[in-house]
Amino acid sequence: MLEARRIAFGYPGAPLLYRDFSLAVSPGERVQLAAPSGAGKTTLARILAGYERPRAGEVLVDGAPLPRRGACPVQLVGQHPEMTVDPRQRMDAMLAEAGATFEEEARLRELLGIQDRWLTRFPHELSGGELQRFCIARALAARPRYLIADEISTMLDAVTQARLWQALLAEADARDLGMVFVSHSPALSARIATRVVDLSGDRCGAPDAVRG
Ligand SMILES: Nc1ncnc2c1ncn2[C@@H]1O[C@H](COP(=O)(O)OP(=O)(O)OP(=O)(O)O)[C@@H](O)[C@H]1O
Predict the structure, then answer these.
(1) Which of 64, 156, 185, 186 is most buried per CB count within 10 Å?
(2) Which residue's alpha carbon is at the smallest distance from atom 25 of ligand 1?
(3) Backbone phi, then psi, for 56, in 5-degree steps?
(4) What pLDDT sits at residue 202?
(5) How far is the CA of 38 from the centre of ligand 1 (A)?
(6) Residue 45 contacts by C-beta under 8 Å, 6 or more apart in sequence?
(7) Which pLDDT score, from 0 to 100, does residue 26 have?
(8) Phi-psi region of 6 (alpha: psi -120 to 50; beta: other; left: phi over 0)
(9) Whole-Å CA distances, 92 to 96, 130, 153
């Protein structure tokens, strides 16, 4: 179980985004974070994956805090892949660093439609959608228990987006992966979500405000 317990968070000098937010995600669940623009969905995604430390509260996986070192059981894929890669590192090296076996890496490349000719390129030599596939492969190679997907397919055309999610959902099912995702596409969200959590509800302090 991935748990955010009684989270309070605000950026320095700004009002709190959440005062007392709690969320529990089971393996296999796919939870959509819903809220208006600027309400703090991306920030919460970062907190869940350990990139931001809350002012109060904690993030736990099966009752234990996220590890400070080594592979994190919660992996985040964001909406700007170019900001999460080393611009001087070739894609084959980036994937190798993710720590998958040769067979597993090949399987993930096949799953995500990563072409061999992309491997010898640098990030700036790939489109946003191509680069995003590498970021998803890197996240899955870390064998996460939970994947946080923050508008990961916004930059893709409708057909590529549908293919990517089909692959990701098959993988999630096979691994019993829990997911928390943000998407501004109602059609995509309706297809993916097993539950919707409305973040705006929490701004009044209601724990785990749930609809659907
Ligand atoms: N690093 C930062 N420092 C200060 N304020 C920030 C920072 N990142 C985000 N914010 C502010 O925090 C609030 C929440 O931002 P966040 O990106 O989490 O919202 P969001 O719900 O994901 O928005 P959107 O749907 O537009 O992507 C916004 O008002 C934003 O301007």
Answers:
(1) 156
(2) 37
(3) -145, 160
(4) 54
(5) 5
(6) 33, 76, 78, 148, 150, 180, 182
(7) 97
(8) left
(9) 6, 13, 22
Taking the C-alpha atoms of residue 63 and residue 41, their distance in angstroms, rounded to an integer, is 23
Is residue 183 within 6 Å of ligand 1 at its C-beta?
A: no
For the chain, list the domains and their CATH numbers: 2-86+144-211 (3.40.50.300)
Model confidence pLDDT, tens digit, residues 77-113: 999 999 999 999 999 999 999 888 999 999 999 999 9
Residue 201: what pLDDT? 60
71 C-alpha to center of ligand 1: Å? Answer: 26
Q: Extract the tokens encoding 138.
A: 């890197």
ipTM: 0.98
Furthest-apart CA pair in the chain: how many Å? 51
Q: Which helix H or strand E contains 32, and what residues bound it?
A: strand 30-34
Q: Work out the end-to-end distance of the chain between its first and last CA atoms, rounded to an integer number of angstroms.
A: 20
List the residue whose alpha carbon is closest to atom 28 of ligand 1. Answer: 38
